[in-house]
Write a structure and sequence with these properties.
The structure is a homotetramer of 198-residue chains. The first copy, chain A, is mainly α. Chain A folds into 2 domains: 43 residues, Homeodomain-like (Arc Repressor Mutant, subunit A, Orthogonal Bundle), CATH 1.10.10; 130 residues, Tetracycline Repressor, domain 2. The first copy, chain A, contains 9 helices and no strands. In chain A, helix 5 crosses helix 6 and helix 8 packs antiparallel against helix 9. The longest helix of chain A is centred in the last third of the chain and has 28 residues. The radius of gyration of chain A is 19 Å and the shape is elongated. The termini of chain A are far apart. The relative contact order of chain A is 0.11. The N terminus of chain A is likely disordered. Chains C and D meet through helix 6, helix 7, helix 8 and helix 9 of C and helix 6, helix 7, helix 8 and helix 9 of D. Chain A binds a DNA duplex (31 and 31 nucleotides) through helix 2 and helix 3.
Chain lengths: 198, 198, 198, 198
DNA sequence: TTGTAAGCGAGACGGTACGTCCGGTCTTCAT
DNA sequence: ATGAAGACCGGACGTACCGTCTCGCTTACAA
């Protein structure tokens, strides 16, 4: 695992070292929790010098943000193209599962937690993750309104908090989200038109 | 400020020292954030020896929990006695405000955050705060059902997550909760009977 | 060797830890040279936390000075009481041997060297070691003058440099000092009266 | 100062870079002491890549040795041609001044010091500087003996240590050498014949 | 005339040690 | 017995240099 035979890179940034750091951070968070996520431990695990980490990341939080951004778009894309009642509901179910099951979900929760302790983390998390993602989620709902799936006249941002807040709070308190919670929220708050199936 | 003239205590637990520690922890959290909340700093500020802290509290988290429990019942009691549509709605509005405005709200958010990093914190937080409080909130809704204010047949625990989750998520992300969000949730999810005013 | 069963000390300075540090520093200097004499290595070898070292010594130089002062008075006392031609000559022979053979001699040379690199070391070395020792050496010569062994009228400090300088320079350049060098200097520079023997 | 407009060199060793390194090392030693004399600092100051230094010098000590050898023959040549009592005495006075005043004298002291910490430095210093210079100094005294200025029958190497040791020790301990010290040593140890003047 | 080989500035890399900070345990002594 | 004081071991922090390496450029010599 310590990437013994990684070729030296010379003058340019060593992509292999970057990957090793991201994976080491991810793995340590999952295996031993945020408390064990020290820069020294990441360096040790990645087989990388501490300075190599400090050269490229201002803090361990930014490392986690990098992994989160890379992973979360892969595992849980926001269905912005022609969203339907079905795809929106599926997105929320996927979101609930992502938070509980996916390593990247754990990373997100850890970052959201750390943001409470450090304003710098809060700002990074918003600028680099929450903001852009929320924009796409708004686009999703706006697409649903435009397509006639959803009635207009709601503040989409607030609506999203109402939908997503419960999922996140359940995850933060270590409890799975039952499907009925999501369905209840979707049914009561979104008032989607053709939701016959699902 | 470091409680200079507190009289020495002798052989019973020193209540003044206990208060000094609780206030010091509270103040440090508010003034400098969770990052500055070290046991050494608390001891310094409270004018107390480190050992006095470790003798009575297993960790700084338990100190915060003590302050949270003491404060939150005072500032935000759960209206379990004959809850009405009005009092339930007021409770949720009060909760949103508590999270943003009240020092104890900050303590709660900090503990909820810390619980993500440490399973021991998570367990304490549930056993000593979240569990009991949630029980009383369930009683509140159960009282509303019994009084005919709310229709029966819902899982009250899940319903509470749907109501409270958005408020907490807004607070965690540093945004105030608009009244319309709460009202929308209450209206759509609770289906309360006599909600004429407000 | 790492002093495993040293009893914990509590409120007062731990004398065992102090000794362990001094010995570790001494040993490391002798065994691996000044280059290997890092604070981390001393701490490791002494079985002591780094902070314990920084608490009591401002730098590794002061550690060495402590060992030097303790040792050099034991191994090479200055014969201030009724010095004779014989005892003065013996002192210089002893000094030459001290520099080459004695661990404390190595410590002295290392400190004299380090003083070239750091003004702070130079000052400490003078104030705590060279100055006091030179005072006693002057007393020695002054006693010889008073006792009629040595003619008066010389600057004793300068004379001592002429006697001691060659020994130190030989030691610094890694060459033993032949007895004839010392005898030549003593005979030519000191002009001692009853030097029949030796 | 960092030699901005030095032309690139191409295929052969860049003499300008060599000079820049030597001067940078010299200047840093004088201005900020041996502690600040890191390879990185030299490279920075000389406007040269670290690798250029490592390509041509095995260590910073060899850089200093290069400057020392170049400078010390210029500033303080050994009077090997027909040495007289006057020229020998002048050489020793010049040596004392060289050690205190001349930048190259500081370099010498620094190297002599560093030699205590590192055997490799000691060896280089002897082979490249101390040995050859001592040979010429022996030649000087041998010339004096041959010319009748000095009586024969002494070990010249040992005599030189007796003459030079005090000067070096004074310099190492940061004290100027009074003229009387040198004169006393020359008079008492060398027994030069025609020393009427000076 | 054009490879090609070396020197060069630049700087990333794996390491080691720095000096500081805090955590949690322990002992001493005064109350 | 309690509590203030504070020494202790352990270990992470972020920084500075170490000595090695690769890159892309420039230049001089050889083919």
């Amino acid at each position: 695992m310590p990437a013994t035979q990684r070729p030296r890179s010379g003058n340019r940034r060593d992509e292999a070292a970057r990957q090793a750091v991201l994976h080491a951070a991810d793995d340590l968070l999952i295996e031993h929790g945020f408390g064990a996520l020290t820069v020294e431990a990441i360096a040790r695990r990645a087989g990388v010098a501490k300075q190599t980490i400090y050269r490229w990341w201002p803090s361990k939080v930014e490392i986690l943000l990098d992994t989160l951004i890379e992973d979360s778009d892969k595992r849980l894309p926001v269905p912005v193209e022609k969203p339907t009642a079905k795809s929106i509901r599926a997105y929320l179910h996927g979101f609930a599962e992502f938070l509980i099951q996916d390593p990247a979900g754990k990373v997100f929760l850890a970052l959201l937690a750390e943001a409470q302790h450090s304003p710098a983390t809060a700002e990074s998390l918003h600028k680099r993750y929450l903001g852009p993602r929320r924009d796409r989620e708004c686009d999703m709902l706006a697409g649903a309104v435009a397509g006639g799936t959803m009635p207009p006249g709601q503040d989409l941002d607030v609506t999203l908090d109402a939908l997503v807040g419960p999922l996140i709070y359940r995850a933060l308190t270590g409890r799975e989200t039952p499907r009925c919670l999501i369905d209840k929220c979707v049914d009561d708050l979104l008032d989607l038109r053709p939701q016959s199936e699902c």
